[in-house]
Structure formats: C-alpha cells, structure tokens
Write a structure and sequence with these properties.
alpha/beta; D-Maltodextrin-Binding Protein, domain 2; 8-stranded mixed β-sheet; 10 helices
C-alpha cells in the first residue's frame, strides 16, 4: 500500500461514492474499487458498507480514515517543503469561495496572479462560508474566503471588505419609498435567505431574534441573483451585502439601508495557523493582501514561511 491508495480511500470516504471519487480523481471506477478491495484484503477488515445508494465507513474504516488523513497530510508537507527547498516557483492552490463573492472580487485577481505566477495552478471550490471555513480547518482547502470573525485560535486571517447589509423589497412594497428601515419593522415579512451553510443565514436570524422577532423564512437559496429575483417576483424580502446590491437591477427591486441595528458584513482571507504554508499559498496571501487591501489594520504586513503575520 502506498500514499496514493490512502488518497483514493480518503476521497471515497468524503464523496460517499466510488463513482464520484473516481470522477474527482480522474481515474476509472474499477481502478478505485480494486484499490479499496486490496486494502481490505491486506488489513483483513471491511472499510465500507452500503447504505442504500451511498456507502459509509465501518468502525475499521473510521479508524483508517483518521490515520490516513494524518499520513497524507504529513506526506504532502514533506513534498511541499522539498519543493520550496528547490525554489521552484510553482505549485497548486485549493481555494474556497462563497458563491456570492467569487464573481464580484476574484476573476480579475486570479487573472493578475496567473500573469505573475504562471506555474501556479488554482482549483476553486464554491461553497457557503461555513463549509469553506470547515474545509480550511480540515486541510481539504489551503485558503478560503469567509465571513469574519473566525476562531483566532485556529486561523490566521486578514479582512478586505467591511460593509453593511441592505434591505431588498419589491417596488410596490409598503417600505419601498423609505430612506431607511428599522430591522424590527420586518417582523411580519416573509424572508428569502441564503441556505444554512452560509454564515449570513445564521447571522440574519440571530439579529432578527435580538430585534424581538423570529423571521418567517419562505425560501432559501445558494445564489444571490435567485434571491433578488424572488424579491423582484414579490415572493418576499431579502437582506444582501452592499457589494451584491450594486450588481442588482434597481428597476426590479427597491434597495434601502437597514438601520437600528445595522448588520455588518466583513469578508476575510483565512488559513490554518498550525499548517505549513507552501510557496504558492504564501505568495497568494501576500499578493491578494496587497491588491485587495486590508480594511482592519494599516501598514505593510508580510507573511513568513509559516503564514504568520509580521508588520514592517
């Protein structure tokens, strides 16, 4: 058994499917099935059992999963350090982006980064900010964009956006002509929210409860344009960040400032504190910090080999 076999096993466990794992790894399903069967024969255990159309880890499989994660991560760290030692300006980055920020901030950033570092490849994963944060913590992603604050014991971060949420209503809505709206005035309104794997989902519900009511959620989506479209169809109201509101056709919805309280929306780049940072990851952090700016701390900040921040 070699490290590749462990990588195959981990991908099957994460995907819950031999077919999906094979697709993600760009290999055939018989190859990955044979690898898992050989592992089971070698160790004399069953690693997976079928649950309907999905497969799940057995008790032995869960033990293998925990140990395989550590071994693959250690192997990758050795590979990264040796590559950096050879000073090859190349590498691969796995970056997580919430869908609502990808198109607004990053196409140009990625293009400029690619021109500066053409040998660094980037793989993007679009998920809600909570999923991105969890995947950076587990090591499935190198870097992610998340809604701040995050756990400072786990992550390094820098902020590049500080905004507020605006209210979106149909042009015929009773509040459409107002200059601003108190959050408590929305107590009887139907809400259109992002799904539960988005940080804004929990934050909006929490702010509403603090304002004295629990919001009545009628629709949930992972796409901001679908949310604004539902508001335009007079199916409910929504709260979206200022940057997203600039992309919305103001003839179809009325966009109003929210007050008493305002709901902040702060985006940041995050990465694990205790994990080795590859050349590619260090360059991405330094490059994007310089390009996007940093909203919470002035001055020039550098990233050392471990991803730690030093001020000059």
């Amino acid at each position: 058994m070699d490290i590749r076999h462990l990588q195959y096993f981990l991908e099957v466990a994460r995907a819950g499917s031999f077919t999906k794992a094979a697709e993600r790894l760009y290999i055939t399903q018989p190859t990955i099935s044979k690898t898992i069967r050989n592992m089971e024969d070698e160790w004399g255990v069953t690693l997976f059992y079928r649950q309907g159309k999905k497969i799940e880890l057995t008790d032995a499989g869960r033990i293998m999963y925990q140990q395989a994660q550590q071994m693959v991560e250690s192997f990758q760290q050795v590979s990264d350090e040796l590559e950096d030692l050879m000073n090859l300006r190349r590498g691969h980055l796995r970056i997580g982006l919430p869908p609502m920020v990808g198109s607004s901030f990053f196409p140009e950033v990625i293009g400029l980064f690619h021109r500066e570092y053409p040998k660094i490849t980037i793989q993007l994963f679009e998920d809600g900010a909570k999923k991105v944060e969890a995947d950076v913590e587990s090591g499935q992603l190198d870097i992610g964009v998340a809604v701040l604050p995050v756990d400072e014991q786990v992550f390094h971060s820098y902020s590049f956006v500080r905004e507020k949420l605006n209210l979106l209503v149909h042009p015929s809505h009773r509040l459409a002509g107002r200059e601003w709206v108190d959050l408590a005035e929305l107590a009887d309104e139907p809400f259109v929210l992002f799904r539960e794997d988005f940080t804004l989902h929990d934050r909006i519900i929490r702010e509403c409860i603090q304002a004295g009511f629990e919001p009545r959620v009628v629709y949930e989506s992972s796409q901001w344009d679908l949310i604004s479209g539902m508001v335009a169809a007079n199916l409910g109201i929504a709260l979206l960040p200022e940057t997203i509101c600039k992309e919305i056709d103001s003839s179809r919805v009325a966009i109003l400032p929210l007050d008493n309280p305002t709901i902040p929306w702060q985006l940041g780049m995050i990465w694990r504190k205790d994990r080795y940072m590859s050349f590619a990851a260090r360059e991405w952090i330094a490059f994007t910090r310089k390009l996007l700016g940093e909203t919470d701390e002035p001055g020039e900040i550098r990233v050392d080999e471990q991803g730690d921040r030093t001020r000059t």
